[in-house]
Structures are given as C-alpha cells and as structure tokens.
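Sequence, please.
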C-alpha cells in the first residue's frame, strides 16, 4: 500500500503553498504536501518547528495566512472545526471523569443526529475495536493509563472521521506500554482505514507506526518519505542527524562516475562511497554513515571497501548490542554498533585496543546540505 507512488491516487489532504504567520513570525512556510487516504502520517521535528500549527490548521483551530488546504478535493479553510470530518485526540485524552467509559465514547454521538439504537451499536463496535468491552461501566479513574488511552481513541473514532489527528497520543505511557500500544494503534488504524496524522517527539515511535514520516524544520518540510527512506537515504545532514544515530565526516569529494571518494584527512585513504547525486570534483561534502553499518574487528574485513584503523575509547554494553566509540588517528570519533550474538562473543575488545573499522561503499550517503 503506497498511494504516494501512484500518480492517479487521490490525496485525502492537500496543502498548497500553505503559510501561517503569527504577527511577523512565520510558523509554517510555503508548505505543499499530499496526505493520502488510509495513510498513517507522522510529523517529526524539534520543538517550535510548526507541527502543532499544521495540525491545528487541519482541525480548523487556525487558518492559513496564505495558501489552500483541501480535503477530498474541496477547500476546507472556510469550514468550521465541528463541520470538518476531522477529529483530534490530545495527549491529556480529556475524558470526562464523571462519565463511564461507555458514556465517554457515546458523548459525541449523542450530540450528533444519530438515532439512539445506532449509538448503542456504534459504541459497542468501538469498545470491541479497542478491546474495552469489559470496562464499559467503569469511570476513567477506575482504569489504567493504557486503557484510558484506548477509550480516548475509541471516542475519537466513534463518529468515523476521515482524518484523525493524534497529538503525542502515547506521551503519558511508560516505555514498555508505549511500545505495545504502538502496535495496537497501527492495528486499529488499519482496521478502520482512517487516515491518521500523528505528532510525536519520539522518532522511534514515528518510524514504527507511520507509513510516511515528514521531518520539519522552521516551518518547512525538509524530507517526506517512508521510515526506511528517511533512515537509509536522508537528504541532508539535518535529517540524518535528527533520525537515529549517525557518524558525520566532512571532507572534499573526488568524483569518478557514480563513485565518490571523500578525503577527510591528510595521509589516510579517503572514504569510498557511491552516489546518484550531482557532486562535483573538489566539492565540500558530508559523509553520513550509521553505526550499525560499521564492523569492528581485529583485522580489516577483506570484503568491505572501507577500512580505517582506530583505538577503542569507550564501549557501551546494551545487552543485545554494544556501541564502540573508536578514535581515528586523524581525530574523528566514530561510533560503531555490533550485535552481541554468540558468534561475536569472542570480539571482547577493551579500551585502548587497536581495532579496524570496515564498511561497504554503499553503507553511507554523501550529502551536500
Ligand atoms: P512543540 O513540539 O514544542 O509542540 P511545534 O513544532 O508543535 O512545537 P508549534 O506549536 O507549531 O511548534 O509552533 C511553531 C512556532 O509558532 C513556535 O515558534 C511558536 O512559538 C509559534 N506560535 C504558535 N502559536 C502561536 C500563536 N498563537 N501566536 C504566536 N506564535 C505562535
């Protein structure tokens, strides 16, 4: 399922050159993007980059200063929030404490013109979807945090919105519960077919749940791609650095066809890389490579294009993996991540050990911005 690759697919949401200014401050800057039906779309970016403003414009709590927002092909800017097929679930959940789970879910339906018997059916369906049937009579204070989150989700989906906006939906849950709930969220999104747009500070969460991730900075979309696309092929140092751990090494490029050498220090071999970007000879570039792409060994690995010698400065044992910080003679500190499988158990390096780092020419990316 990848409608963004299909030129005939109709987007559910279209932002067309949307700008939002608060006074002379530009919170969202000339933004154009399509979000498709049944997508799980994540907005990522540092605090203040405009994620919430974008969501609030979708919900109708803010209007753009310039540009259009279309839903199903129609401009929704003049449509008030309560008449949009859009709902928003807040981090606080905002459940009514004096109402039961059942009543909380039914609340919005009762205020609509849905007939009474249908309300019962719809609430039952939502309780089933979120596995809360057994708790229908309880009050919010009589259920757990994870269950409250599910009730909030059931309530947000009860009126079958076309678009559900989720603002840090799992922010109140602890790590373990949060991980389990991510999969539930994906499951529920799939079952209902509703388009979800999520804002989260947790990049792992965004990568886990989303079909596509948008990385924002200062009101602009820097890159929009699948989680793997964002992680494996970041378009800038900003994105490479924002998502996951990465080594960034600067140098001058020498180019021969699709092969690029990155000369990062005097008197040592350059880094060998391949690229499809237009890079010119002598251009200043940044080379980005993820720690898990680099192998740490006593000897250079013959089947890899890149070999650099260094000294172990730090080892972080994380159980399944260990992180090695290796200082190169040219001064750079490189981090490498190795799985602690049984095969590698004999690889017990210690501080100050001389090691070889090896990686392939396709492991990293050459970036020009
Ligand atoms: P966070 O992750 O901290 O929630 P965000 O990416 O959601 O941040 P926004 O809340 O969209 O950021 O805010 C973007 C920028 O717009 C911020 O610099 C903020 O101060 C500014 N801003 C937001 N709302 C208003 C407002 N009503 N008046 C003036 N400035 C605002």
């Amino acid at each position: 399922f990848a409608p963004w690759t299909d030129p005939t697919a109709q987007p559910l949401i279209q932002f067309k050159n949307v700008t939002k200014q608060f006074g002379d401050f530009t919170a969202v800057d000339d933004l154009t993007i399509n979000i498709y039906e049944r997508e799980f779309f994540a907005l990522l970016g540092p605090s203040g980059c405009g994620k919430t403003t974008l969501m609030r414009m979708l919900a109708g709590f803010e209007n753009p200063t310039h540009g259009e927002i279309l839903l199903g092909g129609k401009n929704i800017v003049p449509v008030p929030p309560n008449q949009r097929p859009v709902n928003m679930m807040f981090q606080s959940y905002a459940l009514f404490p004096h109402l039961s789970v059942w009543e909380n879910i039914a609340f919005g339906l009762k205020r609509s013109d849905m007939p009474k018997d249908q309300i019962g059916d719809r609430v039952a369906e939502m309780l089933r979807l979120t596995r809360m049937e057994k708790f229908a009579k309880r009050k919010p204070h009589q259920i757990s945090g994870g269950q409250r989150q599910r009730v909030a989700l059931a309530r947000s989906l009860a009126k079958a919105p076309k678009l559900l906006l989720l603002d840090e939906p799992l922010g109140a849950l602890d790590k373990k519960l949060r991980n389990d709930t991510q999969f539930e969220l994906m499951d529920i999104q799939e079952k209902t077919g509703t388009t979800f747009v999520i804002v989260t500070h947790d990049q792992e969460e965004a990568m886990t749940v989303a079909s596509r991730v948008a990385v924002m900075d200062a009101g602009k979309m820097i890159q929009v791609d699948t989680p793997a696309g964002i992680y494996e092929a970041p378009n800038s140092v900003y994105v490479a650095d924002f998502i996951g751990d990465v080594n960034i090494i600067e140098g001058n490029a020498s180019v021969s066809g699709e092969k690029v050498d990155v000369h990062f220090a005097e008197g040592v071999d350059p880094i060998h890389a391949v690229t499809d970007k237009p890079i010119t000879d002598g251009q200043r570039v940044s080379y980005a490579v993820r720690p898990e792409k680099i192998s740490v060994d006593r000897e250079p690995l013959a089947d890899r294009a890149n070999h650099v010698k260094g000294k172990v400065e730090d080892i972080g044992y994380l159980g399944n993996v260990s992180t090695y910080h290796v200082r190169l003679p040219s001064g750079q500190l490189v981090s490498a991540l190795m799985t602690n499988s049984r095969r590698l158990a004999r690889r017990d390096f210690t501080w100050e050990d001389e090691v070889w780092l090896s990686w392939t020419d396709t492991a990293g990316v050459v970036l020009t911005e």
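The two ends are 31 Å apart (CA to CA).
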